[in-house]
Amino acid sequence: MTIDEQISFLTRGCVDIVSKADLAKKLESGKTLLVKLGCDPTSADLHLGHSVALSLMRRFQDAGHKAVLVIGDFTAAIGDPSGRDSTRPVLGREQILQNAKTYTEQAFKVLDPAKTEIRFNSQWLDPFVHGTDLLQTLQKITVAQVLERDDFKKRLAAGNPISMLEVLYSLFQGQDSVALKADIELGGTDQIFNLLVGRQLQKNNGQEPQVALTVPLLVGLDGVKKMSKSYGNYVGLNDEPHDMFGKLMSIPDELMPMYYELLTNENVADIKAMHPMAAKKKLAGILVARFHGEQAAQAALAHFEQVFSKKELPDDIPPFTPEPGATLSAVLFAAGAAASKNKARGLIEQGAVRLNGQRLAQDGPFTFENGDVLQAGKRHFIKLVK
Predict the structure, then answer these.
(1) Does residue 14 sit in the same domain as residue 77?
(2) Measured between alpha carbons, how far is 223 from 233 in angstroms, rounded to an integer?
(3) What is the pLDDT of residues 186-211, one digit of tens each?
């Protein structure tokens, strides 16, 4: 490919490219570029929103460049303030390391493990903080630069606190780029400030500044907010094939072009010409196959068509024996059909819970006959046994 063709391929779906001229210069050099993506292990699971930047990194891998996934075991203890309207709770070291293990396992569902280097930023940030380097670096970053951030401006205007650790966060992330001598750093659009700080710190240290590439924040299943586990609008990389397929089929039609552009290499113009239902089935098939294999994707399609298109019960309903005297919400929670009893009560109030096809409108002590089928939402079926 020509340099222009390489740039077009490598930056597909990107919002910020700082700068395209720098990227062209690095590609023209012919050297293997070091592409960095930082990930703070603040929860146990990754979702499709995370996979957007991971997919971009995979493109660089496929083009022959070196991928370094930085696990923010140091920065996770601070909490990234980017795009947030409140301070993130601080995590303990044990929880951070436990989350980091699941992050790397799930990241390799997208990245090529043989071409990926995993680094923990405590390796260089611990000595950076405890030595004289931090003080010297602070002299070169102004308060005005920090307060230019939109998220900080909004929090100050609302009277919400900003900790000094959060103020230093972008400095620590930028130091990651200095330590690795990164050529390119990837991140969401909410990360642009942090990526540009990395460029500045590299200049201060006599390094060639990295190219900053950002990708959009994937809109969640509700079609409104960014995909997030806390919003309940996410598709997890570890979701079971049937669940993943069913969730993807619930995406609003207008989000199809975005999902295809950010999550696949398909021609978006061709997708826009397809019927929305066909486009969703194709997308769900692609993504389930990517994370679970082609056989699982075919089974998930058959399951979806049996349950939703033909309105039949699935063949593989898991059995569950409720505790005697348990409430309906407690049964739904214990059977894994709801993330909490409160979520279960919400499903009941929404009319999304049925017993043998009949809607259950109230929570309370639950009675059933052996072999009854309890359904929660569109995807969860439970065969009740005594």
Answers:
(1) yes
(2) 9
(3) 999 988 888 988 998 999 899 999 99
